[in-house]
């Protein structure tokens, strides 16, 4: 679906345009645009998002704060729409815990689609959002062309992690360094700086199979108050279901689904990915040996080539399973 230039600034009722600027992270040879927006959804909440590219194929990707900077390799021939969930990234914080959860996130995704006037698009969902986009696809099959799950939360709780899926322990010297920052009051006097150190030294390495590749990422979620450690963990505890079974809803997904799982992923265990694929009518699994929860960081060339091929409807280089 191709949008005319300026469409998001002028033609969408209720949408508040923030900026229209060039993104410094895109190749100069590509024709693109970079626009930011805030969309009102239910309960008076506004969601932050950004639109990159002019391409005819539209892909919606939740979790802008983690993915927008790194997912630029997918922009060619596409319009990428990134946005943040309620209480996450640049979106409004929700003080009422009863207004958080996966069903609200599914409804918010539909609100984003409706506000932007998009009829047909593909979806990419990472981690918890791998489950969320699958639920959306089951409820709105008329809109969804293809779905990519990356290290998804399983359709049911995974009770046991396989060998190699315990994550990488942060280096002792990094833990000691972070402890020293806390003792100095760094969290209070420079919360953004502390958060950045915590993300790079503790959070990301603990969920990666190849933590030495952490320098590959350009994500900077800490510019948002919602992603500072204290608020982040509070939100995660409220939005993540305590017990769930999405098996019946998975069976109703009509779109082709690619489930990307690392064999060393402690946050999205491969057992859950395999179960998703067994439930989808048209699902395929891409297993990445020794890779953890950030495959676009740990093995970017392989990851992007496979996802790009799937979104274009061509055969995966790995063949899938």
Describe what this molecule looks like in 3D.
- This protein has 321 residues and is α/β, with parallel strands linked by helices.
- The protein folds into two domains: 7-162 and 242-311, 3-Layer(aba) Sandwich (Rossmann fold); 172-239, no CATH class.
- The chain has twelve helices and nine strands.
- A nine-stranded mixed β-sheet has the order 1-2-3-5-4-6-7-8-9, sandwiched between helices.
- Strand 6, helix 4 and strand 7 form a beta-alpha-beta unit.
- Helix 5 runs antiparallel to helix 7 (191-206).
- The longest helix is centred in the middle third of the chain and has 16 residues, at 191-206.
- The protein is globular, with a radius of gyration of 19 Å.
């Amino acid at each position: 679906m191709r949008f005319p230039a300026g469409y998001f600034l002028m033609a969408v009722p209720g949408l508040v345009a923030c900026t229209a600027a060039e993104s410094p992270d895109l190749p100069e040879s590509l024709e693109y645009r970079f626009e930011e927006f805030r969309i009102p959804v239910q309960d008076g909440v506004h969601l932050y998002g950004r639109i990159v590219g002019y391409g005819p194929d539209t892909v919606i990707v939740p979790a802008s704060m983690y993915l927008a900077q790194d997912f630029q390799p997918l922009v060619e021939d596409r319009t990428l729409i990134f946005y943040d969930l309620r209480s996450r990234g640049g979106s409004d914080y929700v003080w009422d815990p009863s207004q958080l959860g996966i069903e609200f996130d599914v409804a918010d995704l539909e609100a984003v689609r409706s506000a932007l006037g998009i009829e047909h698009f593909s979806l990419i969902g990472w981690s918890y959002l791998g489950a969320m986009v699958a639920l959306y696809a089951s409820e709105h099959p008329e809109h969804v062309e293809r779905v990519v799950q990356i290290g998804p939360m399983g359709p049911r709780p995974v009770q046991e992690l396989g060998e190699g899926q315990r994550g990488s322990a942060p280096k002792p010297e990094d833990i000691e360094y972070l402890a020293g920052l806390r003792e100095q009051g760094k969290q209070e006097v420079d919360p953004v700086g502390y958060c950045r150190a915590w993300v790079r030294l503790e959070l990301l390495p603990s969920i990666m199979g190849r933590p030495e590749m952490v320098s590959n990422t350009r994500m900077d979620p800490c510019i948002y108050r919602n992603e500072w450690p204290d608020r982040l963990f509070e939100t995660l505890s409220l939005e993540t279901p305590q017990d769930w079974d999405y098996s019946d809803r998975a069976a109703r997904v009509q779109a082709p689904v690619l489930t990307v799982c690392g064999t060393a992923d402690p946050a999205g265990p491969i057992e859950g990915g395999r179960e998703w694929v067994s439930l989808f009518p048209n699902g395929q699994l891409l297993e990445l040996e020794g890779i953890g929860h950030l495959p676009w960081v740990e093995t970017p060339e392989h990851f992007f080539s496979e996802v790009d091929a799937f979104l274009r409807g061509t055969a995966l280089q790995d063949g899938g399973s």
